[in-house]
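Hi team,

Below is the intake form for Alcohol dehydrogenase from Alicyclobacillus sacchari. Please confirm the fields before the structure is written into the shared record.

FORM ID: S-0412
PROTEIN: Alcohol dehydrogenase
ORGANISM: Alicyclobacillus sacchari
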Amino acid sequence: MTSFSYAIATDIQFGEGASRQLAHHLLRLGFGRRLLLVTDAGLMEAGIPQSVAASLQESGFMPQLFTQVQPNPRDEDCLIGADAFLRFRADAVIAIGGGSAMDTAKAIALLGRQGGTPAEYADGHRTYGATAPIACLPTTAGTGSEVTRSAVITETKSHRKITLKHERLRPALAVLDPLLTRSLPPAITAATGVDALVHALEGYTCTVTQPVSQAFGAAAMPLIYRALPKAYRQPDDLAARSDMLLGSLLAGLCFGSSDVAAVHCLAEALGSLYDTPHGLANAVFLLPVLRYNASACGSQYANVARHMGVADAKLSDGDAVAALLDALGAWLHDLSIPTLSRLPEVRREDDERLVALALANGSTASNPRPLAADDYRAILEEAYRM
Ligand code: NAD
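The structure came back. Fields below:
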């Protein structure tokens, strides 16, 4: 008998121009007037936070910008952000950006109200108290953080990526406007989009998946698979941008209530050691992990191939898995995603650290085929050979 639970308290608003209604939704949901807008330098260059701030001001809110967010966001910036939150006497936190801005905003909403450091929560030394209300305006189509209950932060002193995970970190409001993703450069579009596909694929096939996650994953995969090459080649293709944003939302709803697996464990290890952009780090491990897992979850991978439309129902499971691997190889190639050996920052002498970090990641247990250190070593070898 199937049994599962699924709950999500995020109010989701999706559509072209949806961000223009931000003030209306903040009022409707009872957010206070003093808003800390959390964003980064790339977004400031694109001019997006400035126009959101101006329109909030026109509607009677008091926005204040906090722009000190880095890719693979740092705990020390979260602490500075929490200080800014307190000094401004903010009522709520609004993230404008990709996963880095959204995760920093979640941490600020927690630390600004409860104190402490991100590691104290992630390591279980502090309990999660009430956060300030959080709203997210994603500007990448990748992480799904606008609907998840986690925040991935890098601890500066140890350089490990830690995950804060609690229902209190789930945003109260997610406003998804494809217009905000049009300025995303092609290489970042490609890398963040691969992250979204991996969320759907791992959320759909991991050991803790469940029917609602699988339904979201099945809907997300074909959208992302088809739309990403279009958005990559034609950045102002609004239909492709919209499909990508929807795909990444659905993928977030998929893995947000199941888990990710070995691709993400290796990707987070790589990000910890070298600051490799998260989507790129996922992309270089995708095929080697799929090959490793295929013997354990061939029929699920065959279903993934059918959902993505790269294998028809008549193909055997084995042939459908082969078609999936071929299709994803060609897809990554079309997106000009480099292989692991082409990443200049990666050093072979760090292999054992990578393996240890991946193994220590809690999501290793959710991988559909069990993994020991030697299995991670073999996957790493294959990633280098590609
Ligand atoms: P990101 O937020 O680091 O952004 C990448 C770059 O793109 C930045 O330089 C940013 O300025 C730029 N950018 C973003 N939107 C833009 C736009 N519209 N126009 C121009 N430039 C733009 O990238 P990301 O992949 O969205 O986030 C990665 C982070 O999210 C990682 O730290 C990862 O671990 C985390 N993550 C979190 C979750 C979660 O559920 N909390 C899930 C997956 C990943």
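SUMMARY LINE: Residues 211-233 form the longest helix (23 residues).

Thanks, M.
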